[in-house]
Amino acid sequence: MLFQQIVNGISVGSMYALLAVGFSLVYNILGIANFSHGAMIALGAFFSYWIARYLAVPVPVAILASIAFTGLSSALVELVTLRILRKRGQGSLYFFIASLTVFNLVTAVLVYISRGNIVSYPRAFLSGTFTIGNLYIPWIDAGMLLISIVCLAVLSYVMFKTRFGLAVRAASFSIKAAQLMGMDIDAIIQGVFFVSGTLAGVTGALLGVKYAVYPYIGNFVYMALFACVVGGLGNLTGAVLGGLLIGLLETLVSAYISSAISPALTFAFLVVILLLRPQGLAGRATEEKI
Amino acid sequence: MLRRAASILAISALVLLVAGMGISAQADVIVIGEIAALTGPTAQQGLQERNGAVLAVEEINAAGGVLGKQIKLITYDFKGQPAEGVSVYRKLVQQDKAVVIVGTNFSNVNLAMAPVAEQLKVPVLSNAMEPAVTTPEPGKVNKYHFLAQPSSIEQGAIVARYALDELKFKTAACLVNKGNSFATSQAEAFRDYFNANGGKVLDYIEVPAGAVDFKAQLTKIKASNPDCIYIPQYAQEAGLQVKQARELGITAVVLGANTLGVPPFVEAAGSNAIVAGTYFINNVHFGDPRLADFMARYEKRYGEPVITTNVFFGYDNVYIIKAAIEKAGVAEPEAIRTALENTKDVKILQGAGTITLDPNTHRPVDMPAWIFKWEADGTTVPMTLMYP
C-alpha cells in the first residue's frame, strides 16, 4: 500500500510541479505573484474541451491548440494589465491585484458559460489503468508525469540554450541593466507570459482529463504558489521540488494520519519548512526585484 | 446643497409611495417565496426545481387559486452560499411579504436559515435532509422548519438495509465529504445501521471539502477490500470518486445518495461504463406509470424532459403548501405553520404518493424511496421501493 500511495503522491506532485514552474517563471523575472496563471489553467481546460467537443478533433490535437490559445491569452493579459501599469510606473502590488482580478473575472465568466457544470472530454484520452505488480497506475498519471518531464526539458533548453532564454535570465537579474544593454524588455516580458501561459494551458488541459473540466479548476494556482514558496521563489528547480513535496505530503498525510485534516496538516508542515528555511528548499537569499 | 438634498428626499418619497402601492396592490394574492440554486454547479437541479414549482402554481391559479386568491411565486437564488440563503430568506419575508417559503435541498443552507426562521416566524418547507434542520437537538423541534422527503438518517439506513438484505453484503467502507452535512449525516446513518444489523464498516474515511483527488483514501479502502463503498456526496464529487476507485482497480460495488441519479454524476465519472453497477436512492421513479401524465405536462410546458428529482421537490412542495393554506383557512404564516405541522395524507408525486408529517420531528412519517441501479447502457433501473 505504501508504494501505491507514493505513486498517488507523485502523480499529484508532478502536476503541482508543472503548475509551479509556469508560475515561477513570471516571478523569476518580475518578482510578482501572477494569479492570472489560475485563469490560464482554467482556460486551458475549457479551450481544449470546447475544441475537442465542437470541432470534433482528437483530444491531443485539441490540447495542442488550447496550449497556443492560453499562451496568447497570457500574453494578452500582460499587454492590457502589466504593460500599462509598468508604463505608468505603478508598483508590483498593482499588478498582483490586477492578476487576481483577471483570475476571478475569467472564473466568473466560465461559471456563467458552463452554468457551473462539470464536464468530461467527449472522447477517451489516456483513460484506463495499467498495472505493475499490484501497483495501479492510471495512464493519465503516467502521461502527466511524462509530459511534465518533457515540458521541463523543453523549458530548460529554451532558458539555457536560446537567445530568448539568455535574455530572460539577464532580465531576471536586473530589468534596468538589461534595458541599459539595449534589450527590448517589453518583448521579453511578453515572451515570458506566453511561455508561462502555455505551461498553464497544458496543465489545465491535463487536469481536465485527470479529473474533469469545471470552472473552479483554476484554484490549483494556489498550490502552484505554495509549491514555489516551499521550493524557493523564483527558482525553477525549487518549484519542481516543492510541487512533488506537497503532492507527496498531502497523499501520505491523508493515507496515514487523517484524511479530513490533511490540508491543515500539510500546511502546518509547510510552515515548519519555511521557518527552518525561509528562502525555500532550493532557494538562495534574494533581494527585492523591480 | 439643501435644494439637492430636498429633491433627493422628494424622489425617495415618490419611490416609497410607488413601492407601497405595489404592496397594497398585492393584498389579494398569496406570496410564496422559493429559494433555489439557480446558478453554480447544481444550477440544473435548481432551475428544474423552480420549473416544478411554477408549474404547480400555474395549475393551482388556473383552477381558481387557494381560498379564492391567486398564488404569486417569487424565486431567489442562494448562489450556493448558506449566508446568501439567510439573506434571501429575510428579503422574501421582510420585503416581499411571503407567508411561507419553500426550499432548499441543501442541508448547509437550511441549517443556516433555521435560527433566522425561528425569529422571523415564517415557515419553511424544505428538502434539506439533515435531521438537525428540523430537530437541532434531540427532543427539540424547530417550530418553523419542515422536511418533505425522507431524512438523511432514513435514506442512509435504507441504503444500508438494501446492501445487507438484498445484496447480501457483509463489509462496507464509507467515503464522506466532511464539509457537507448532507453527506456526513447519511454516512453516519449508513454506518450505524450497517454495524448494528450484522455488517461491518471497515473504513469510515472523511475527506476535506473541495478535494478532487481521492486516491490516497481509496487506496486505503482498497487495502481493506470491502464488499461495497458508500459515497453519499453530491453528484460531481461522487463521479470523481467512482472514476478514481475504478482507476485503482477497486471492484467493490458503489452505493450512493439521491445525487447519483443525475447526468453530472456520469459526466464527472467519465462514461456509462464506469458508473455501471452503481446503486443509488431516489424518492421518485421517473418511469412510474403513476407519473406519466405529469412527465408529459412538464415536458409540454418547458420543452425539456424531467431530468432531476428537484422538479418533484418544487411541484410537491407547492401542493403541500396549498393543502396547508386550505386547512388553515387563512394565508398567514402562523396559521400555515400549524397546518403544516398537521399535514396528513396529502397527495404528492414522490414516494408512494402521499405525505404525512410527524408533529414532533416535522419530518415525513414512513415515506419510502426507490433503490436504483445504473446499467452500462446509461439507463437506471428501479430495483425496489423501500420503506425506512
Distance between the termini of chain A: 48 Å
Estimated structural class of chain A: mainly alpha
- Give, in spatial order, the strands making up the sheet with the most strands of chain A: 1-2
Strand content of chain A: under 5%
Overall geometry of chain B comes to globular
The CATH C-level name of the largest domain in chain B is Alpha Beta
Number of helices of chain B: 13
Quick description:
The complex is a heterodimer of chains A (290) and B (388). With 290 residues, chain A is mainly alpha-helical. Chain A has eleven helices and two strands, in the order ααααββααααααα.
Note down, in words, how this protein is organized.
The complex is a heterodimer of chains A (290) and B (388). In chain A, strand 1 (129-132) and strand 2 (135-138) form a beta hairpin. Chain A is 73% helix and 3% strand. Chain A has helices at residues 2-30, 36-54, 59-87, 92-114, 139-161, 163-173, 175-180, 185-210, 221-231, 236-256, 262-276; strands spanning 129-132, 135-138. Chain A is built from eleven helices and two strands; from the N terminus they run ααααββααααααα. Chain A has a single domain (2-276), classed as ABC transporter involved in vitamin B12 uptake, BtuC. Chain A is mainly α and 290 residues long. With 388 residues, chain B is an alpha/beta fold. Chain B has two domains: 9-150 and 290-357, Rossmann fold (3-Layer(aba) Sandwich); 153-282 and 370-386, Response regulator (Rossmann fold), CATH 3.40.50. In chain B, helix 2 runs parallel beside helix 12, helix 5 packs across helix 6 (181-196) and helix 8 (235-247) packs parallel to helix 9 (263-269). Chain B contains 13 helices and 14 strands. Helix content of chain B is 45%, strand content 18%. In chain B, the strands form three sheets. Chain B has a seven-stranded mixed β-sheet with strand order 7-6-8-9-10-13-14, sandwiched between helices. Chain B starts with a helix and ends with a strand. Chain B has helices spanning 2-25, 43-62, 82-95, 107-120, 152-166, 181-196, 215-224, 235-247, 263-269, 272-275, 292-302, 310-328, 333-341, and strands at 29-36, 70-77, 100-102, 124-126, 145-147, 171-177, 200-207, 228-231, 253-256, 279-282, 346-347, 354-355, 369-374, 380-386. In chain B, strand 8, helix 8 and strand 9 form a beta-alpha-beta unit. Residues 21-25 of chain B have low confidence and may be disordered. The chains are: A mainly alpha (290), B alpha/beta (388). Chain A binds chain B through residues 1, 4-5, 8-9, 11-12, 111, 115-120, 124, 127-129, 131, 136, 138, 211-212, 214, 250-252, 254-255, 259-263, and chain B through 39-44, 178, 205-208, 212-213, 215-217, 219-220, 222-223, 236, 239-240, 246-249, 264, 267-271.
